[in-house]
Amino acid sequence: MVKQMKKLALIMIVLIGFVATSAIAQDNLSPERKQAIDSLALEKVRDLSKYISLIGSKDTPWSEANRVIDRAEELFMQGSEIGVSSLTRTEINYYTTRKYFERLMRLNYDKVEIDWYNIEYVSDLQRQPDGTYVGVITIFQKFSAYDKEGRLVYQDTTKKDITVYVKRKETQIGGRLIGFWDVLLGDIRVKETTI
Amino acid sequence: MKNIPKNFSKFLMVFLVAAIALGGASSCNSKKKLAKEQAAAAEAKKIEQANNDLNAIINGTSGWTVDEQAKRVATIKSYNFDDPEIQKLIGEAEKAIEFGRAEEERKAEEERLRMEEEARIRAEQSKYAGIDNQLAAIATASSVDAANNEINSALQQFASPDAPVLIIISQENGVNDYDRPTSAQNFLNYLKDVKGYNFKVVSVQRDSAGKITELELLKKW
Amino acid sequence: MNIYRKTLTTLAILLIAYTIPAQNNSFKGFSEDETVLYTMNKQVGQFVRRFNMEEDQYGKFLLKEDERYHNNDLRQKLLPSMFDIYNPRTAGKLKQFFVDDVTSKDSSIFLNFLDKNWYAEVSATFTANGDDVHIILYLTLEEENLGSKWILSNVWYSYFPSLFPTIDSAEQAKYFLHPMSHELDFMNLHKALERPDRIQVYASQKYRPDFLTLFFYQMKTGKLKFKQIDSVKFHFFQIRNWYFELSYFNRNETNSGWLISNLKYINNEEKKELIKSYRLCDSLQ
User: Fold this and answer.
1) A116, A127, A140 member nearest C147 (Cβ)
2) Which residues constitute the domain of residue B163?
């Protein structure tokens, strides 16, 4: 009996040790793996940029735009909001992601151009209490709208600070255990800039 | 006081004459001695050089190939230096060369295997070039309709539109990190939406009918 | 003064020209000078990473092995551009002293995300009885389980201190429950409670009202309702003898984004006093 207890204790110690070291190993990712995660997060933001351009474009057929809205929504954590303020209105308007995309699709201009500055800033990833990593990616967008005669009727440049959640997950596919990084976008703060 | 310089120059003259005469005589006498000294110096230099070379071989700092090192040691051996230090170094250098040769052989084999594996991977990847091309065609289609046609024909190759598509985002020490798994249908539409194909097919699972049941891609950053 | 400002601006521009090659990149055929966007401190974290010299001019991480990483000579050059150049307090000699201190060879100072003693100040509008009121929320980072989170550490609302007016000590000395009150079943208590405006004099001499609790109470009872956030800034106390404030400047020039907007050389005692407004006294470690 005592012998068995000892054995059990040993197994427990080994198990706990394993769990602890794997948790530490997880936290001390090599710079290369960290880089890959940053790139993946940035890629999701770029995907979002492309979806936004598609949704906003008058050339995108209605059915396609609706499909793209669904895909764009899949990039987000449920309940994410987009908070928008302008130079003249510092008050923040909050939209759900779907509302935001639908508004974009229904904009009453004859032609819109959505351009993304070639600059993206990726923050450090910090862990929140549940262990999920949180980061913020900052991008800049220029929006121009034209009327029927091709005259520029509205233009703004906005800074978009996009929350990114990164969580390590595992799933079984074809009998194999696949470890993957689940990257989801969260709240976005959209602030008009003077640029 | 004034006389001194005069006397001094006289004295100097006498001294110089004497010195030249004596000097000439002494050089004549020691020619043999000089030759002997020169030979000894040459020998010492040779020993010093041998000592340096052997140490460089032992420490792996010679910069020579293993063959060059062996040749140099053979030459040093042929001098038959009567110097216990050199003899000891020769022994050590021979061991170092032996070790170097063994390492070279192993490295060569490792390199051969690596090349072979790379060739195999290349061959395997070119095996998937067809799929890569088809996927790239979706991304570069001229219109939404053209892209949709490409998607439909690509989907024919999958066992189901829900067949899993795995995307490797980093490979380190044999560990693959993946993006969230997606489905064939979603992935093909994704290529259409983002209008780019920065991936490479690395493995394909097929069912008995030859349809793709799982696609694994490597993301190119 | 004007010349001084101009010189500073020129210096800053020169520095930027030195660190950032002119960018004329285009994406989707879009082309514009992006120098301002590169130069501005786009995130608080970028301010910290630049302060420490942990990223290159494009915002890419520097590895610890990189000779630029934490390099004090580079920090000496970069740090002066991270201050609001239009504020005399952050544009003169004091700023140079600060830069010298944090980049000194023997005792260089770096900021860390999880440092204690840096606070966020959120100015917000609430409504009380239908009227807009201005309230400041103070937040600080707290570690928990696997990570960390921002917590509300204090609040400032002019109404709360007005509930606790300072009563001069002579006046205060008149009011107390005498030490034998217990023998009379505290029958004198009712007199004490008759005047709620000075009720606090019956508490300990050490008593300090806890405004965060008052704030929670008013929120819970619906007396206060959140309306909107007006602005956010940060207060850094972790550097010995220095305090600085970080604010966001939305300007179309390179001196923009998150910049040091206030700087003070203060001793530890003064610092403790200042921190009191950001963090409840009780929770001060």
Assistant:
1) A127
2) 128-219
Closest CA to A117 of A49, A42, A48, A185: A49
**Residues in chain C where the model's pLDDT stays below 50:** 1-31, 281-285
> Which residues of chain C are within 8 Å of residue A136 when distances are taken between CB atoms?
43, 45
Look at residue B200 and tell me if it is in a domain: yes
CB A73 within 8 A of CB A182: no
For residue A98, CA distances in Å to A52, A69, A114 come to 12, 7, 18
Contacts of B180 in chain A (CB under 8 A): 169, 180-183
Which chain A residues have a beta carbon less than 8 Å from that of B194? 46-47, 50
Residue B4 within a domain: no
Look up the ipTM and state it: 0.81
Give me the number of domains chain B comprises.
Answer: 1
Measure CA of the first residue to CA of the last residue in chain A; give whole Å. 76
Q: B195 to chain A: which residues are within 8 Å by CB?
A: 50
CB contact, 8 Å: A194 with chain C?
Answer: yes
Asked if C68 has any chain A CB less than 8 Å from its own CB, the reply is no
Q: Does residue B174 lie within any of the structural domains?
A: yes
Distance CA C23, CA A113 (A): 22
Q: Which of C25, C144, C251 sits opposite A129 (nearest CB)?
A: C144
Q: Count of A–C CB contacts within 8 Å?
A: 81
Q: Do A195 and C252 touch (CB under 8 A)?
A: yes
Instruction: Kindly state whether residue B194 falls inside one of the protein's structural domains.
Output: yes
Distances, alpha carbon A8 to alpha carbons A13, A20, A22, in Å:
9, 18, 21
Domains observed in chain A? 30-192 (3.10.450.50)
Q: Among A89, A35, A45, which Cα is nearest to A188's?
A: A45
How high is the mean pLDDT in each 10-residue block of chain B (221 residues)? 53 55 54 86 88 90 89 90 87 90 87 85 82 95 94 95 96 88 96 95 93 95 88
